[in-house]
Amino acid sequence: MNQRIDPAAAVRLLDAGKAHAVDVREPDEYRAGHIPGALLLPLGEVKARAAQMMPDKNAPWLVYCRTGRRSAQAIAWLEQMGYTNLYNLGGILNWPYEVEGDFEGRF
């Protein structure tokens, strides 16, 4: 299942421990600011490292990037790999809640 999820629904799932956020941006973007607790899995590493980083293919995974384009690509690949409970959170630019990071860079 691949569906869009809005930030309000996503934060409820994350706060309840019912989902995990996955950031598919590059490490420097992640360091600049990311959703608290999000796993870093750059888009270029999704195919090679998803099984290691995201072992439960049936768990709810909230995938995001900067604007939503990379998250859509990552979800397409993850679906091909057998992941069944994927949510496209889109871009962190639309995330109105807390973020962690050094904030020196830009999202």
From TrEMBL:
<feature type="domain" description="Rhodanese">
    <location>
        <begin position="15"/>
        <end position="101"/>
    </location>
</feature>
<dbReference type="Pfam" id="PF00581">
    <property type="entry name" value="Rhodanese"/>
</dbReference>
<dbReference type="InterPro" id="IPR001307">
    <property type="entry name" value="Thiosulphate_STrfase_CS"/>
</dbReference>
<protein>
    <submittedName>
        <fullName>Phage shock protein</fullName>
    </submittedName>
</protein>
<dbReference type="InterPro" id="IPR001763">
    <property type="entry name" value="Rhodanese-like_dom"/>
</dbReference>
<dbReference type="InterPro" id="IPR036873">
    <property type="entry name" value="Rhodanese-like_dom_sf"/>
</dbReference>
<dbReference type="GO" id="GO:0004792">
    <property type="term" value="F:thiosulfate-cyanide sulfurtransferase activity"/>
</dbReference>
